Amino acid sequence: VQLQASGGGMVQAGDSLSLVCAASGRTFRGYTMGWFRQAPGKEREFVAQITWRGNIDLADSVKGRFTISKDNAENTLFLQMNMLKPEDTAVYYCGARSKLATVYSSWGQGTQVTVSS
Fold first, then answer.
1. Quick one: how far is CA 5 from the chain centroid?
2. What are the C-alpha distances in Å from 93 to residues 12, 55, 83, 104, 113?
3. Could you give the percent of the chain with pLDDT greater than 70?
4. pLDDT tens across 100-111, in order?
5. Residue closest to 108 by CA, chosen among 10, 36, 27, 52
6. How confident is the model over 53-70, as pLDDT tens digits?
7. Strand 111-116 vs strand 9-12: parallel, antiparallel, or unpaired?
8. Rounded distance, CA 69 to CA 89, Å?
9. Across the strands, what pairs with 94?
10. Residue 101: predicted pLDDT
11. SS3 108
12. Which residues 6+ apart lie within 8 Å of 5 measured at CB?
């Protein structure tokens, strides 16, 4: 599955942004879809995922602020980010993992999110 992330930008602390990940190549109904981020000088970290069953997991750092959702009909994954903080600044990547896999194998190109204080 090919992924294309978009929606990043530069905002101020407290603002909101919506990220979108469009999938092509095959339907992602049988995939767990997730968002990860990588800040400068840091490892890529998990942000949120929605499993092929529809179960949702969120990193503790974004609980209560970020919402992940998907539209199976449109093969699109969303990340609604509210109450953004400067520490949310990173390149955000969407990823896909088939239901039989234990690791993410497909990645989008990343979209930059910059939050100023």
1. 8
2. 21, 20, 20, 11, 11
3. 99
4. 888 999 999 999
5. 36
6. 999 999 999 999 999 999
7. parallel
8. 21
9. 35
10. 87
11. coil
12. 19, 20, 21, 92, 93, 94, 108, 109, 110, 111
CB atoms near residue 4 (< 10 Å): 14
Give the tens place of pLDDT for each residue, 29-49.
Answer: 789 999 999 999 999 999 999
Contact present, 8 and 19 (Cβ < 8 Å): yes
Beta strand ranges found along 7-109 (DSSP E): 9-12, 17-24, 31-38, 45-50, 56-58, 66-71, 76-81, 90-98, 106-107
Residue with tokens 């992940």: 68
Whether the predicted pLDDT of 1 surpasses 90: no
Q: 105, 88, 102, 76: which is closest to 38 by C-alpha?
A: 88
